[in-house]
Fold:
Amino acid sequence: MVHKKSTSTSAKILYRPIGLVSGVVSGALAGVLFKQLWKVASPSHSKDTPKALESEFPLREILVAAAVQGAIYATVKALVDRGGARAFEKTFGEWPGD
Structure:
């Protein structure tokens, strides 16, 4: 059973800058992880990740790259957001969300 804790307005406001910074950090980390993974796993073994407007990549490779990149971004973002919220709760005694 999960206990729902109420969050004060001040906790939400105090967490905003932390949430913004963690969003930037998680996006950068996800980008680095994706580029490293793509270098190893790409069918063409190119150093560049395929972009939708680059004609040298087949559509299938572009779609696979986009799906993998999206999954990595969402996973890293969720991990960083959850970790930041837990650290905030341990520090300030209140959960920053809800």
The two ends are 17 Å apart (CA to CA).
